[in-house]
Amino acid sequence: QVQLVESGGGLVQAGGSLRLSCVASVSDFNMYAVGWYRQAPGALDRELIGANSGGQNTNYADSVKGRFTISRDNTQNTVWLQMNSLVPEDTAVYYCAATHYYTREQYWGQGTQVTVSS
Q1: Max Cα separation, the chain?
Q2: pLDDT digits over 56-80, tens only?
Q3: 90 neighbors 40 (Cβ within 8 angstroms)
């Protein structure tokens, strides 16, 4: 069973920055694509805001493009989400999810709260 643990959330003022971490307990982390999702207060669904499918292959939702950056280090089984120029609309619980390239098994972290005050 793969476990993902997010950390780094918190309260920040608009315009500020946060960096979230997602650490996976798996031996073949390089075989997983990793996505960052968020669920805003009252929202029914989680929004995919960015995903890394290995190396420099990263895509972002329009809502965060140019402000958020995903990076990963497979030697540390870690993916980061650097969030800059935060706005109150970024307030949400942020989740990472890892999907195996071949088996398509997907695992989720427990989420970390990000609150942006105006």
Answers
A1: 43
A2: 889 999 999 999 999 999 999 999 9
A3: no
